[in-house]
C-alpha cells in the first residue's frame, strides 16, 4: 500500500527533465541579467540605458496583458495613470524641465528615487479623486481609504 502511494507522487523522468531544463534556463537568464551591467560598462557598449526603457515598456505591456486577459476589456485608464506617473517623474528629474529650470522642484526631489515615490503617489491621488466622482461611496471607500465619503451599507441607506 505504501509503495503505490509513493509511486503515484513520483514524477515521470520526462517531466523531471523538463523541470530541470526550465530551471537551467532561469538560472542562465538570471546570471546574464546580473552580469550584463558590469560587462556593459567594462566593454564600453553603453546600452544599459536603452535596456531600462525597454523593460519599463515590457512591464507596462505585461500589466496591460493581465488587465485585458483577466477582465476581457481593454482598460486604457491603466495606461493613462502610467503616463501620469512617467510625466511627473520626467518633469521632476529632467534638467531641461521648466519646473526644474524655474526652481519649482526642490533639489532633493530631482533625483530618481524621491521623484519615483512622488510619481507613484500622484497618480494614486488622481485615481482617488476620479473614483470619488464616478463610483458609489462604498467603492471609493474601498479603493481610497482616506476618502471622506461614508460607505453605503444597505439598499435602504441608498434610498435615504
What features would you highlight for this structure?
75% helix; 2 domains; single chain; mainly alpha; 160 residues
Tally of individual helices: 8
Shape: flat
Portion of residues within helices: over 70%
How many domains, in number, for the residues? 2
Largest sheet: none
Element order: H for helix, E for strand? HHHHHHHH
**Radius of gyration (Å):** 25 Å
End-to-end CA span: 66 Å
Mean pLDDT: 76
Number of E-state strands? 0
Report low-confidence residues grouped into runs of 5 or more. Answer: none
| Beta-strand residue percentage | under 5%
Structural class: mainly alpha
Question: How does the SSE layout of this entry go?
Answer:
Blueprint: H1 2-9, H2 13-43, H3 48-71, H4 76-93, H5 98-101, H6 112-134, H7 137-143, H8 155-159
Helix pairs in contact: 4-6
Can you tell me about this structure?
- This protein has about 160 residues and is mainly α.
- Helix content is about 75%, strand content about 0%.
- It folds into 2 domains: about 35 residues; about 80 residues, no CATH class.
- Helix 4 runs antiparallel to helix 6.
Quick gist of this model?
This protein has 160 residues and is mainly α. It contains 8 helices and no strands.
